[in-house]
């Protein structure tokens, strides 16, 4: 499993980040990312059971459906995915999932209409709309920050993809109407990062904007440790409290030491030139 041993739960929200060197087949997701401030291309709700991680999400190909996290990662080929915990009572998360499950079989909202209908008038949802409406149905009416649909690039020019997309449907581009976007939803005041995993080689390492996203990095993933003990992290220049960090327990420490021991054996087998390349890359990332 992708997230084995991690404290994930029903109703968690999964965000998929844009991968590099994507093929033309993913032009739709490229266009989604191109109109946002962050490279978030898709979002879904986590439906967890004891043996696997399943998602409920809306896709252009299948509409609202249930699919394993592994399959979604294989299809999207994201650079990374992040799992956020909604800071609401568990019953709210359960109710949100139950509402989302009731919409399985609905179409994909190909025209991004606010009335949840597609170009044929059928009940439909786009990915972020499904997540947002699920939590709204559970009583959280401001789950997603206010957002107006945008189909322009950073210079305010309509992207050719979207111009052609809506021309094929004989519709005007719904620029500026009320809606949602994964890059806006990820900033929700209700969401807190719980887990993150890189799925592709770190060709481009993005430095986290907040320190709490980088405090624990285990087996190629940023993780939020659940612990009864925490310590405060302060900004040394002004004494500002930056975050609270969960303390690793003995089990986590043991796993990290085992990984480090294996890594040491691999490191010992490298020659000086190979080690130099790795150190140079590490230095460039830190800078």
TrEMBL record:
Name of the protein in question: Aldedh domain-containing protein
Annotated ranges, domain Aldehyde dehydrogenase: 228-287
Entries under Pfam families matching the protein: Aldedh, Peptidase_C92
Top-rank lineage group of the source organism: Eukaryota
Gene3D superfamilies: Aldehyde Dehydrogenase, Chain A, domain 1 (3.40.605.10), endopeptidase domain like (from Nostoc punctiforme) (3.90.1720.10)
InterPro entries, alphabetized: Ald_DH/histidinol_DH, Ald_DH_N, Aldehyde_DH_dom, Papain-like_cys_pep_sf, Peptidase_C92
Species annotation: Onchocerca flexuosa
GO terms for MF: oxidoreductase activity
């Amino acid at each position: 499993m992708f997230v084995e041993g991690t404290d994930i739960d029903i109703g968690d929200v999964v965000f998929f980040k844009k991968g590099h060197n994507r093929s033309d087949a993913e032009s739709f997701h490229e266009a989604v990312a191109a109109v946002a401030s962050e490279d978030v291309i898709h979002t879904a709700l986590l439906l967890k059971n004891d043996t696997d991680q399943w998602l409920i999400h809306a896709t252009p190909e299948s509409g609202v459906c249930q699919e394993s996290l592994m399959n979604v990662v294989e299809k999207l080929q994201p650079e990374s995915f992040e799992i956020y915990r909604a800071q609401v009572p568990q019953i709210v998360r359960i109710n949100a999932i139950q509402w989302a499950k009731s919409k399985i079989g609905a179409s994909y909202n190909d025209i991004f209409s606010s009335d949840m209908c597609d170009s044929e008038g059928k009940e439909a949802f786009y990915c972020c709309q499904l997540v947002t409406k699920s939590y709204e149905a559970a009583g959280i009416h401001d789950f997603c920050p206010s957002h107006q649909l945008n189909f322009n690039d950073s210079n305010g020019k309509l992207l050719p993809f979207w111009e052609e997309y809506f021309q094929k449907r004989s519709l005007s581009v719904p620029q500026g109407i009320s809606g949602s976007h994964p890059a806006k939803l990820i900033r929700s005041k209700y969401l807190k990062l719980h887990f993150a995993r890189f799925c592709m080689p770190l060709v481009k390492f993005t430095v986290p904007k907040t320190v709490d996203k980088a405090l624990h990095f285990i087996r190629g993933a940023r993780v939020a440790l659940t612990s009864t003990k925490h310590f405060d992290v302060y900004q040394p220049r002004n004494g500002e409290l930056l975050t609270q960090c969960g303390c690793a327990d003995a089990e986590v420490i043991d796993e990290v030491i085992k990984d480090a021991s294996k890594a040491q054996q691999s490191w010992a087998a490298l020659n000086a030139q190979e080690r130099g390349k790795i150190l140079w890359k590490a230095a460039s990332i830190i800078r």
